[in-house]
Amino acid sequence: MLHTAWKGTLSFGSIDIPIRLHTATEDQEIKLRSLHKECLTPIKYEKRCPSCEQDVDTDDIVKGYELEDGRFVVISTEELQQVRRPFENKDISMDHFIELNEVDPLYFGKSYYISPQEAGERPYAILQQALLDTNKVGIASVFLHSRQQVVLVRALEDVLIMHTLYFLEEIRDVENVPNLRDQLVDTQHKDLAGKIINEMTQPFNPNHFHNQYRDSLKDLVEDKLAEGQVVSPKEPTKQSNVKDLMTALKMSIDSPPTAKPKRKTSQKKVSRPSS
User: Fold this and answer.
1) Beta bridge partner(s), residue 125
2) Residues paired with 116 in a beta bridge
3) 141 in Cβ contact with 96 (< 8 Å)
């Protein structure tokens, strides 16, 4: 069963469908931890203020927008929530429908499976079949993972899929790509390149591709396991005042304290009693 990443409503026209989103892809890369070479202990990345030279708790952190001169505009949690509130309506409302081939793959981001919640199965199936029959996809907007996103909803076999899309301003201008110049291409070379492309053309088959680097790294890990090349990190050293006390005692022996000057006491004359 897939984990639910988001719950809300998918709507078009006057039809509202209660839905769940499930992440459609997963990272299967073999993750390696960074260890201290001497004791093989995992390295910790702590939140630390370099100015105050102290560790910082989450409650002591605020958000700030950095200016070019290194100054910041500080934004409080309350202010950030106030800006988000109008967009956090848990609704994916499809504004219009388009042909899928109208969207360049450059705009595609993350993919999610859409499943219907209870009482949403029938309208879900109706929308899914209608999208298949018309060969159309829906365009909508949603507030997801603390940001507003444009999304594309399409049908694939028996399921609806949602793809996040980059905003136009998030796509870098192709004019900034270096070394692109107008080149005169003669017909002979162009026809030859087209012939090679046609000869190498075949249907897309995802089974054709495999992560060979991941398999090689996995084999290396399994070989080391089979050879018993497994280590355990050292236990963290417990801080104790004993070491500090011994250091202080040794310093006292090596450098005995200088004698304090004697305090001068005032002497009063004591009068003898008269005889």
Assistant:
1) none
2) 19
3) no
Q: What is the pTM of this model?
A: 0.76
Give Rg (Cα) of the chain: 35
Whether the CB-CB separation of 167 and 108 falls below 8 Å is answered with no
124, 160 contact by CB (below 8 A):
yes
Q: Quick one: 92 exposed, middle or buried, by C-beta within 10 A (0-12, 13-18, 19+)?
A: buried
Altogether, the residues listed in the chain come to a count of 275
Per-residue confidence (pLDDT) for residue 119, from 0 to 100: 87
pLDDT(85) > 80:
yes
d(CA 164, CA 170): 13
Q: Are strands 15-23 and 54-55 parallel, antiparallel or unpaired?
A: unpaired
Cα separation, 203 vs 55, in Å, equals 56
Q: Do 64 and 75 meet the contact criterion of CB atoms below 8 Å apart?
A: yes
CB 46 within 8 A of CB 38: no
Bridge partners, 108 (sequence order): 165
pLDDT value at 194 more than 50: yes
What is the distance, to the nearest Å, from the Cα of residue 201 to the centroid of all Cα atoms in its chain?
37
Q: Which two tokens stand for residue 72?
A: 């910041």
Place of tokens 């102290």: 54
Query: Cα(201)–Cα(99) distance, rounded to whole angstroms?
Result: 24
Tokens of 89: 């309506």
Least confident piece of the model among 54-68, 182-196, 237-251, 256-270: 256-270
The conformation of residue 103, written as its DSSP 8-state character, comes to S
Question: Between these two residues, 256 and 163, which has the higher pLDDT value?
Answer: 163
The single residue listed with the structure tokens 């136009």 is: 168
| Tokens encoding 268 | 């009063």
